[in-house]
Amino acid sequence: MPQAKSVLRISENRKLRLFIVKLFLFGILFYLHKVSVPFSLWAENISGLPSILGALLFLLGGNILISLARMLTARIYMRKQKDEDFQINFLLGITWISNILNSIVFLSALIMAFGIRPFEFLTSLTIVAAAIAIISKEYITNTINGLIIMFTDQFSLGDTIKINEQKGIIKDITLLNTVLKRDDGLTMMIPNNLMLSTHVINYRFTDRKDVEFIFEVPVETKMSLKEIREKIEPKLAKRLESKEISKFIVGLSGIYKEKIAIKIIVGIAPEKEPEIREEFDEILLELMYEKQ
How many CB atoms lie within 10 A of CB 40? Predict the structure, then answer.
Protein backbone atom coordinates (compact mmCIF):
# COMPACT_ATOMS: atom_id res chain seq x y z
CA MET A 1 0.00 0.00 0.00
CA PRO A 2 2.95 2.49 0.37
CA GLN A 3 3.19 2.72 -3.45
CA ALA A 4 -0.53 3.50 -3.75
CA LYS A 5 -0.15 6.12 -1.06
CA SER A 6 2.71 7.86 -2.90
CA VAL A 7 0.73 7.83 -6.18
CA LEU A 8 -2.22 9.44 -4.38
CA ARG A 9 0.05 12.11 -2.91
CA ILE A 10 1.19 13.02 -6.44
CA SER A 11 -2.46 13.17 -7.53
CA GLU A 12 -3.33 15.40 -4.55
CA ASN A 13 -0.46 17.76 -5.43
CA ARG A 14 -1.86 18.12 -8.97
CA LYS A 15 -5.27 18.90 -7.54
CA LEU A 16 -3.68 21.50 -5.28
CA ARG A 17 -2.16 23.26 -8.30
CA LEU A 18 -5.54 23.20 -10.05
CA PHE A 19 -7.14 24.59 -6.88
CA ILE A 20 -4.72 27.54 -6.91
CA VAL A 21 -5.60 28.27 -10.55
CA LYS A 22 -9.35 28.23 -9.73
CA LEU A 23 -8.75 30.49 -6.73
CA PHE A 24 -6.85 32.95 -8.94
CA LEU A 25 -9.67 32.98 -11.53
CA PHE A 26 -12.25 33.49 -8.79
CA GLY A 27 -10.26 36.46 -7.47
CA ILE A 28 -10.15 38.09 -10.91
CA LEU A 29 -13.87 37.48 -11.53
CA PHE A 30 -14.82 38.74 -8.06
CA TYR A 31 -12.79 41.92 -8.56
CA LEU A 32 -14.34 42.63 -11.95
CA HIS A 33 -17.91 41.91 -10.88
CA LYS A 34 -17.98 43.29 -7.32
CA VAL A 35 -15.14 45.82 -7.04
CA SER A 36 -14.42 47.29 -10.47
CA VAL A 37 -17.02 50.02 -10.97
CA PRO A 38 -16.31 50.61 -14.71
CA PHE A 39 -16.68 46.92 -15.48
CA SER A 40 -19.90 46.65 -13.43
CA LEU A 41 -21.43 49.62 -15.26
CA TRP A 42 -20.46 48.15 -18.61
CA ALA A 43 -21.85 44.70 -17.67
CA GLU A 44 -25.21 46.17 -16.63
CA ASN A 45 -25.73 47.46 -20.16
CA ILE A 46 -25.63 43.91 -21.56
CA SER A 47 -28.82 41.94 -20.97
CA GLY A 48 -28.34 38.84 -18.82
CA LEU A 49 -24.60 39.37 -18.26
CA PRO A 50 -24.88 40.24 -14.51
CA SER A 51 -26.79 36.98 -13.92
CA ILE A 52 -24.19 34.99 -15.85
CA LEU A 53 -21.32 36.59 -13.92
CA GLY A 54 -23.11 35.94 -10.62
CA ALA A 55 -23.65 32.31 -11.64
CA LEU A 56 -19.97 31.92 -12.55
CA LEU A 57 -18.94 33.38 -9.18
CA PHE A 58 -21.30 30.98 -7.41
CA LEU A 59 -19.99 28.03 -9.47
CA LEU A 60 -16.32 28.83 -8.84
CA GLY A 61 -16.88 29.72 -5.18
CA GLY A 62 -18.82 26.53 -4.48
CA ASN A 63 -16.28 24.42 -6.35
CA ILE A 64 -13.40 26.03 -4.42
CA LEU A 65 -15.04 25.39 -1.03
CA ILE A 66 -15.82 21.75 -1.93
CA SER A 67 -12.30 21.19 -3.29
CA LEU A 68 -10.76 22.76 -0.18
CA ALA A 69 -12.80 20.52 2.13
CA ARG A 70 -11.93 17.43 0.07
CA MET A 71 -8.20 18.22 -0.06
CA LEU A 72 -7.97 18.94 3.68
CA THR A 73 -9.84 15.74 4.53
CA ALA A 74 -7.66 13.68 2.16
CA ARG A 75 -4.39 15.16 3.44
CA ILE A 76 -5.33 14.73 7.10
CA TYR A 77 -6.35 11.13 6.43
CA MET A 78 -3.13 10.28 4.53
CA ARG A 79 -1.00 11.91 7.22
CA LYS A 80 -2.66 10.05 10.10
CA GLN A 81 -3.10 6.62 8.54
CA LYS A 82 -0.21 4.18 8.63
CA ASP A 83 0.69 2.33 5.43
CA GLU A 84 -0.79 -0.97 6.63
CA ASP A 85 -4.10 0.68 7.65
CA PHE A 86 -4.40 2.91 4.58
CA GLN A 87 -7.63 2.42 2.62
CA ILE A 88 -8.07 3.87 -0.89
CA ASN A 89 -11.83 3.45 -0.46
CA PHE A 90 -12.03 6.42 1.91
CA LEU A 91 -10.48 8.79 -0.63
CA LEU A 92 -12.69 7.28 -3.33
CA GLY A 93 -15.72 8.01 -1.15
CA ILE A 94 -14.93 11.66 -0.45
CA THR A 95 -14.12 12.17 -4.15
CA TRP A 96 -17.56 10.87 -5.15
CA ILE A 97 -19.25 13.03 -2.50
CA SER A 98 -17.41 16.10 -3.80
CA ASN A 99 -18.50 15.17 -7.35
CA ILE A 100 -22.14 15.01 -6.21
CA LEU A 101 -21.87 18.38 -4.45
CA ASN A 102 -20.18 19.93 -7.48
CA SER A 103 -23.01 18.64 -9.68
CA ILE A 104 -25.55 20.32 -7.38
CA VAL A 105 -23.55 23.57 -7.47
CA PHE A 106 -23.33 23.38 -11.28
CA LEU A 107 -27.10 22.90 -11.67
CA SER A 108 -27.76 25.76 -9.24
CA ALA A 109 -25.37 28.02 -11.16
CA LEU A 110 -27.06 27.07 -14.43
CA ILE A 111 -30.44 28.06 -12.98
CA MET A 112 -28.99 31.34 -11.66
CA ALA A 113 -27.56 32.12 -15.10
CA PHE A 114 -31.15 32.37 -16.39
CA GLY A 115 -32.07 34.80 -13.60
CA ILE A 116 -34.02 32.23 -11.56
CA ARG A 117 -33.46 31.77 -7.83
CA PRO A 118 -32.46 28.14 -7.13
CA PHE A 119 -34.50 27.75 -3.93
CA GLU A 120 -37.69 29.02 -5.57
CA PHE A 121 -37.06 26.76 -8.56
CA LEU A 122 -36.51 23.69 -6.36
CA THR A 123 -39.63 24.47 -4.31
CA SER A 124 -41.73 24.57 -7.46
CA LEU A 125 -40.35 21.16 -8.47
CA THR A 126 -41.13 19.42 -5.18
CA ILE A 127 -43.83 17.16 -6.63
CA VAL A 128 -41.73 16.32 -9.69
CA ALA A 129 -38.73 15.60 -7.46
CA ALA A 130 -40.82 13.23 -5.33
CA ALA A 131 -41.96 11.35 -8.44
CA ILE A 132 -38.37 11.13 -9.73
CA ALA A 133 -37.22 9.82 -6.34
CA ILE A 134 -39.82 7.02 -6.46
CA ILE A 135 -38.92 6.06 -10.03
CA SER A 136 -35.17 6.12 -9.34
CA LYS A 137 -35.38 4.32 -5.98
CA GLU A 138 -33.07 1.54 -7.21
CA TYR A 139 -30.42 4.05 -8.29
CA ILE A 140 -30.66 5.92 -4.98
CA THR A 141 -30.21 2.77 -2.89
CA ASN A 142 -27.34 1.69 -5.15
CA THR A 143 -25.69 5.07 -4.60
CA ILE A 144 -26.13 4.90 -0.82
CA ASN A 145 -24.75 1.35 -0.74
CA GLY A 146 -21.84 2.48 -2.93
CA LEU A 147 -20.94 5.14 -0.36
CA ILE A 148 -21.27 2.56 2.44
CA ILE A 149 -18.81 0.28 0.62
CA MET A 150 -16.39 3.19 0.10
CA PHE A 151 -16.42 4.30 3.74
CA THR A 152 -16.17 0.85 5.33
CA ASP A 153 -13.47 -1.79 5.34
CA GLN A 154 -15.69 -4.58 3.97
CA PHE A 155 -14.31 -4.30 0.43
CA SER A 156 -11.32 -2.48 -1.01
CA LEU A 157 -9.67 -2.06 -4.40
CA GLY A 158 -7.47 -5.06 -5.10
CA ASP A 159 -9.46 -7.47 -2.90
CA THR A 160 -10.13 -10.94 -4.29
CA ILE A 161 -13.79 -11.82 -3.73
CA LYS A 162 -16.27 -14.54 -4.66
CA ILE A 163 -19.94 -13.67 -5.25
CA ASN A 164 -22.54 -16.07 -6.66
CA GLU A 165 -19.85 -18.44 -7.98
CA GLN A 166 -18.09 -15.50 -9.69
CA LYS A 167 -14.56 -14.88 -8.48
CA GLY A 168 -12.24 -11.99 -9.28
CA ILE A 169 -10.41 -8.86 -8.17
CA ILE A 170 -12.14 -5.56 -7.37
CA LYS A 171 -10.84 -3.01 -9.88
CA ASP A 172 -13.14 -0.07 -9.15
CA ILE A 173 -16.04 1.00 -6.95
CA THR A 174 -18.53 3.52 -8.35
CA LEU A 175 -21.75 4.92 -6.93
CA LEU A 176 -23.79 2.29 -8.81
CA ASN A 177 -21.54 -0.73 -9.36
CA THR A 178 -18.51 -2.60 -8.13
CA VAL A 179 -16.24 -3.49 -11.06
CA LEU A 180 -14.89 -7.04 -10.79
CA LYS A 181 -12.20 -8.50 -13.04
CA ARG A 182 -12.75 -12.25 -13.16
CA ASP A 183 -10.03 -14.89 -13.26
CA ASP A 184 -10.71 -15.43 -16.98
CA GLY A 185 -9.98 -11.75 -17.70
CA LEU A 186 -13.60 -10.68 -18.26
CA THR A 187 -14.98 -7.65 -16.41
CA MET A 188 -18.24 -7.77 -14.46
CA MET A 189 -20.37 -4.88 -13.17
CA ILE A 190 -21.97 -5.94 -9.88
CA PRO A 191 -24.72 -3.64 -8.49
CA ASN A 192 -23.80 -2.30 -5.05
CA ASN A 193 -27.17 -3.47 -3.72
CA LEU A 194 -26.15 -7.04 -4.54
CA MET A 195 -22.74 -6.60 -2.91
CA LEU A 196 -24.38 -5.82 0.44
CA SER A 197 -27.38 -8.13 0.21
CA THR A 198 -25.87 -11.47 -0.80
CA HIS A 199 -23.17 -13.80 0.49
CA VAL A 200 -19.73 -12.55 -0.56
CA ILE A 201 -16.40 -14.12 0.36
CA ASN A 202 -13.56 -11.62 0.72
CA TYR A 203 -10.28 -13.55 0.74
CA ARG A 204 -8.53 -10.62 2.44
CA PHE A 205 -10.26 -11.65 5.67
CA THR A 206 -9.56 -15.37 5.37
CA ASP A 207 -6.45 -17.09 6.70
CA ARG A 208 -6.83 -19.92 4.19
CA LYS A 209 -7.48 -19.92 0.45
CA ASP A 210 -8.20 -22.85 -1.87
CA VAL A 211 -5.88 -22.82 -4.90
CA GLU A 212 -6.39 -25.15 -7.87
CA PHE A 213 -3.64 -26.66 -9.99
CA ILE A 214 -4.78 -28.36 -13.20
CA PHE A 215 -2.45 -30.31 -15.47
CA GLU A 216 -3.10 -32.72 -18.32
CA VAL A 217 -1.58 -36.09 -19.11
CA PRO A 218 -2.01 -38.25 -22.25
CA VAL A 219 -4.59 -41.02 -22.00
CA GLU A 220 -1.86 -43.65 -22.55
CA THR A 221 -0.02 -42.44 -19.43
CA LYS A 222 -1.01 -44.97 -16.79
CA MET A 223 -1.00 -42.88 -13.63
CA SER A 224 -3.62 -43.31 -10.90
CA LEU A 225 -4.79 -40.51 -8.58
CA LYS A 226 -3.29 -42.42 -5.65
CA GLU A 227 0.06 -42.63 -7.42
CA ILE A 228 0.04 -38.90 -8.15
CA ARG A 229 -0.73 -38.17 -4.51
CA GLU A 230 2.01 -40.49 -3.27
CA LYS A 231 4.57 -38.83 -5.55
CA ILE A 232 3.64 -35.23 -4.63
CA GLU A 233 2.85 -35.55 -0.91
CA PRO A 234 6.42 -36.34 0.28
CA LYS A 235 7.69 -33.21 -1.47
CA LEU A 236 5.20 -31.15 0.57
CA ALA A 237 5.84 -32.92 3.87
CA LYS A 238 7.36 -29.90 5.63
CA ARG A 239 4.57 -27.57 4.58
CA LEU A 240 1.91 -30.11 5.59
CA GLU A 241 3.54 -30.58 9.00
CA SER A 242 3.81 -26.82 9.59
CA LYS A 243 0.18 -26.38 8.46
CA GLU A 244 1.21 -24.00 5.68
CA ILE A 245 -0.85 -26.35 3.53
CA SER A 246 -4.04 -27.31 5.35
CA LYS A 247 -5.77 -29.15 2.51
CA PHE A 248 -4.40 -31.45 -0.19
CA ILE A 249 -6.89 -33.07 -2.60
CA VAL A 250 -6.14 -34.86 -5.88
CA GLY A 251 -9.04 -35.46 -8.27
CA LEU A 252 -10.20 -35.50 -11.89
CA SER A 253 -11.03 -32.28 -13.70
CA GLY A 254 -12.11 -34.00 -16.90
CA ILE A 255 -11.59 -37.03 -19.19
CA TYR A 256 -11.19 -36.37 -22.88
CA LYS A 257 -10.44 -38.42 -26.01
CA GLU A 258 -6.67 -37.95 -25.94
CA LYS A 259 -5.97 -36.58 -22.48
CA ILE A 260 -6.96 -36.63 -18.83
CA ALA A 261 -7.11 -33.43 -16.78
CA ILE A 262 -5.96 -33.80 -13.17
CA LYS A 263 -7.01 -31.28 -10.53
CA ILE A 264 -5.10 -30.66 -7.31
CA ILE A 265 -6.63 -28.42 -4.64
CA VAL A 266 -4.53 -27.08 -1.78
CA GLY A 267 -5.55 -24.85 1.12
CA ILE A 268 -2.89 -22.23 1.81
CA ALA A 269 -2.42 -18.87 3.49
CA PRO A 270 -2.98 -16.09 0.88
CA GLU A 271 0.44 -14.52 1.52
CA LYS A 272 2.12 -17.87 0.76
CA GLU A 273 0.36 -18.33 -2.60
CA PRO A 274 3.13 -17.06 -4.96
CA GLU A 275 5.78 -19.12 -3.18
CA ILE A 276 3.73 -22.33 -3.08
CA ARG A 277 2.53 -21.89 -6.68
CA GLU A 278 6.13 -21.74 -7.87
CA GLU A 279 7.01 -24.82 -5.84
CA PHE A 280 4.01 -26.74 -7.19
CA ASP A 281 4.90 -25.86 -10.78
CA GLU A 282 8.37 -27.37 -10.25
CA ILE A 283 6.89 -30.50 -8.64
CA LEU A 284 4.43 -31.03 -11.50
CA LEU A 285 7.18 -30.58 -14.10
CA GLU A 286 9.34 -33.19 -12.33
CA LEU A 287 6.35 -35.53 -12.22
CA MET A 288 5.73 -35.19 -15.97
CA TYR A 289 9.41 -35.72 -16.83
CA GLU A 290 9.45 -38.94 -14.78
CA LYS A 291 6.69 -40.45 -16.91
CA GLN A 292 8.30 -39.58 -20.24
Answer: 14
CA pair distance 22, 144, nearest whole angstrom? 30
Q: Where are the beta strands (DSSP E) in 147-186?
A: 160-163, 166-173, 177-182
Closest listed residue to residue 213, CA positions, set 227, 228, 234: 228
Q: Is 56 exposed, middle or buried (0-12, 13-18, 19+ CB in 10 A)?
A: middle
Written as tens digits, the pLDDT of the chain (292 aa) is: 555 556 667 777 788 888 888 888 888 877 777 766 566 666 566 666 677 777 888 888 888 898 888 888 887 777 776 654 556 777 788 888 888 888 888 888 887 777 666 665 555 556 556 666 666 677 778 888 888 888 877 888 878 888 888 888 888 888 888 899 887 778 888 888 888 888 888 877 666 777 788 888 787 777 788 888 888 888 888 888 877 787 788 888 888 878 888 888 888 877 677 788 888 888 888 877 665 5
CA distances for 194 relative to 3, 104, 200, angstroms:
31, 28, 9
Run of H or E residues at 240: helix 237-241
Residue 82: other Cβ atoms inside 10 A:
9
Distance CA 107, CA 116 (A): 12
Q: How many residues make up the chain in this entry?
A: 292
* Integer Cα distance of 292 and 280 in angstroms: 19
State how beta strands 209-218 and 166-173 pair: unpaired
| Strand segments (E) across the chain | 160-163, 166-173, 177-182, 187-191, 200-202, 209-218, 245-255, 259-268
Report the C-alpha gap between 48 and 86 in whole angstroms: 49
